[in-house]
Write a structure and sequence with these properties.
The protein is α+β, with helices and mostly antiparallel strands. The chain is built from 12 helices and 23 strands. Strands 9, 11, 12, 13, 14, 16, 17, 18 and 19 form a 9-stranded antiparallel beta sheet that branches. 50% of the residues are buried.
């Protein structure tokens, strides 16, 4: 199945990508891909080691004539987001990604592709394996757990790397050169509730919200895409307000950094209200579909009669749950006042779980402003605490402050214009790149980020552009040839 991928140009990159995608590599379960990278480096007779948290470092000496150039760190992360369509049977822990070519794009069959950040990893591997590419001394840094906490970058100790310049290969627009990014913090709300026996003379229904685009909760948040948790809450709130709906279970969303595509709930209503509830809810669903028609044409909401559950939530806690999710912001909080069209601060209500007497709501708040990040996090905290939730912050990581005097930024931007006859889009992004974290222990390291065009990251619609990957590869080779002298 992946043979057609191996014949794409540049073959050296796509073959490495196919090899990498044969290795399961979920976040926090990177043991196999770590060993894969160690074996790769040692088979090339290059200095290869693993640091105390699991990052892999491979060093390659400069080619002849480039010994006096500044040492370059090539950096990408090994883990990938695991998302699949509800009707796709796939075991991420055991299977390699199944890829296919559709026109100018490489996609996976019903799952995420892993181009984020697998194409960056593959490009670095191709550079390390090459005997023809000219380059200075190289340090390849393959970090772990970028997608679920950036613990690899956080755990990288100062002094391990000797490089002067870092090229992060984790940007998803091929005409963009990254010079800054947002930081983030997880806002987690929890509480317990009393389970009550399901009232008699009630009817039970399973409600499902499906078919949304999903996507990257940072880069795609500006698009105003549907959030399954918010849509489900709107339906449940309406049913509770008008018909006394009772909740038995909710399971919405999945990963913290993915816009929720699906949500499922089990509810009951009094038999006397059953027909009116169904009519009212169907009308509401049609209204919601109409609101999202242009950007979420595949949104599907189903209501199916089921057997009665054993229990439902305590009524007071249920009211607080629905009102707090309604009050909690999802989407863009503030646009950057300094950079046009850049989201400064946002929130993604990523996960809602209600089951067996416990509630857990997970949000990922992002901002390039540390003070506004805290402001929004406190706003969410307040909304949930008013309903009796215990709220904590975790997984906080800093943003990457732009350096307008960057030497490597000038080199890369000028090279782009020379190669393509137009200026690159030099910008900060509303995503969590590892540069900000790495810069804490390596404050003197000069950094930029770039990469091939990738669409739909963090969703089963993830796809990598083939001509863009060719463009990215040529750009990387030219940058390595033109790095500054010491």
């Amino acid at each position: 199945m992946n043979s057609e991928i191996r014949n794409l140009a540049p073959k050296e990159v796509w073959n490495m990508f196919a090899d990498l995608n044969a290795v399961p590599r979920p976040s926090k379960k990177e043991e196999r891909v770590i060993q894969f990278m160690v074996d790769f480096g040692k088979n090339l007779n290059l200095e290869t080691f693993v640091d105390k948290v699991g990052n892999v470092i491979i060093k390659k000496p400069a080619t002849k004539g480039f010994e006096n150039r500044k040492t370059v760190v090539l950096q990408s992360h090994l883990d990938m987001v695991h998302q699949k369509n509800a009707d796709t049977i796939f075991d991420f822990d055991k299977e390699g990604i199944k890829m296919k070519v559709e026109g100018d794009w490489v996609k996976a069959k019903g799952t995420t592709l892993g181009a984020d950040n697998g194409l960056g990893v593959a490009a670095i591997m191709a550079v390390l394996a090459s005997t023809e590419i000219e380059h200075p001394n190289l340090e390849a840094l393959f970090t772990i757990d970028e997608e679920t906490g950036m613990t690899g970058a956080m755990g990288l100790e100062g002094g391990i790397l000797k490089g002067d310049i870092l090229l992060n290969l984790d940007t998803e627009e091929d005409d963009e050169i990254g010079m800054g990014c947002a930081g983030g913090v997880d806002v987690i709300a929890k509480r317990t509730y009393a389970e009550e026996e399901t009232p008699k003379n009630t009817s039970a229904f399973a409600i499902s919200v499906k078919g949304l685009n999903g996507g990257h909760s940072g880069m795609d948040i500006i698009k105003g895409l549907g959030n399954a948790n918010k849509i489900m809450n709107r339906i449940l709130f309406d049913g509770f307000t008008n018909f006394g709906l009772r909740i038995s279970e909710i399971n919405g969303g999945s990963l913290r950094n993915a816009i929720p595509r699906e949500s499922f709930a089990i509810i009951t209503v009094d038999n006397i209200s059953k027909e009116a509830f169904h009519f009212e809810t169907t009308t509401l669903i049609n209204n919601i579909k109409q609101e999202f028609l242009t950007i979420e044409p595949n949104l599907k909401v189903d209501i199916e009669a089921i057997s009665s559950p054993k229990s439902v939530m305590d009524l007071g806690v249920q009211e607080g749950l629905l009102k707090s999710i309604y009050a909690a912001l999802n989407g863009v909080y503030r646009m950057s006042p300094d950079i046009a069209d850049l989201v400064e601060t946002s929130n993604n209500i990523a996960r809602v779980i209600v089951k067996d007497g416990a509630i857990k709501i997970g949000c990922l708040t992002r901002s390039s402003s540390e003070t506004n990040k805290l402001d929004l996090a406190n706003s969410l905290k307040s909304a949930f605490e008013l309903s009796g939730f215990d709220v904590g912050f975790s997984g906080e990581y800093p943003g990457w402050q732009p350096n307008v005097n960057s030497e490597i930024l000038d080199v890369v931007a000028n090279l782009y214009e020379k190669l393509h006859g137009e200026k690159a889009n030099v910008a900060a992004c509303h995503a969590g790149l590892e540069c900000g974290i790495l810069g804490q222990n390596y404050p003197e390291m000069d950094m930029v980020s770039f990469g091939p065009t990738i669409r739909g990251a963090h969703s089963p619609d993830e796809r990598a552009n083939i001509p863009s990957t060719q463009k990215f590869w040529k750009f990387l080779i030219e940058i390595l040839k033109n790095t500054p002298e010491k």
